[in-house]
């Protein structure tokens, strides 16, 4: 069965709308313009395609998309590497062969668990598919004020739990990046019904998520700053770095890094002692909780 190309067309249209002829380095075609972005005909010329070919792509009527066409569109639209990866995922052919009807539970990668054990001086979280928590250390619980039990959903905590908005000072920036990560994952695994259902749940529960999703922004999970207003430790600043392995890119070790000698670095040992009592570490005063 051919892959549904609706998502491919929507992504192309969103990237075309954000790029003006001047930014693309061409003279605008004559005639009135309803939007500042590129016209379909202009993008077709930039990519070396016929207008009809490009229209079929954007309308989701082109079942086969070659690598050369993907590369030409990526260059014409001036996509960054993450966007190029997403475009390649959307243009990929449908997988062949039967898919398992029941997905086996994801198991934490032993190598990433060993790496986590060496990083007990900073908060660390191991996430799997659909942002499922596979493991975390005690300091992570103390910093976020949530148990983050294995099997729970980090995305549901981030978007559905009011406490996350209170805790994370730059919640909108961090949350928008998380939506971009979910969109990247959906592009890579569009047949994952549980993932698609999670996105639908979050879009229905949050106007911000719905808006960010409709922007078609994609983000890899690396190098995002996170500012926390911790009720015990005070203001905390982390650089979030994600580590994955080539043999299992669906698992990401999320490490909360700190600047040596910073105020956050000085506070973490105190929070680490507090984390020795998991019940106390997760007992931060919370404004309410949503189901997870």
What report would you give on this structure?
- 47% of the residues lie in helices and 13% in strands.
- It is of the alpha+beta class and 292 residues long.
- The chain folds into two domains: 86 residues, 434 Repressor (Amino-terminal Domain); 172 residues, Beta-Lactamase (2-Layer Sandwich).
- Strands 2-1-5-4-3 form a five-stranded antiparallel β-sheet, with helices on both faces.
- The longest helix has 18 residues.
- The C terminus is likely disordered.
Biggest sheet details: 5 strands, antiparallel
Order of helices and strands: HHHHHHHEEHHHHHHEEEHH
State the helix count: 15
Shape assignment: elongated
Number of strand segments: 5
What value does the average pLDDT take? 89
Number of domains: 2
Determine the fraction of residues in helical runs and give it as a percent range: 40-55%
Spatial arrangement of strands, main beta sheet: 2-1-5-4-3
Q: Please state roughly what percent of the residues sit in beta strands, choosing from under 5%, 5-15%, 15-25%, 25-35%, 35-45% or over 45%.
A: 5-15%
Task: Extract low-pLDDT stretches.
Answer: 284-292
Report the end-to-end length measured between terminal Cα atoms. Answer: 35 Å
Structural class by secondary-structure content: alpha+beta
- CATH classification, class level of the largest domain: Alpha Beta
| CATH architectural designation of the largest domain | 2-Layer Sandwich
CATH topology of the largest domain: Beta-Lactamase
Specify Rg, calculated over alpha carbons.
22 Å
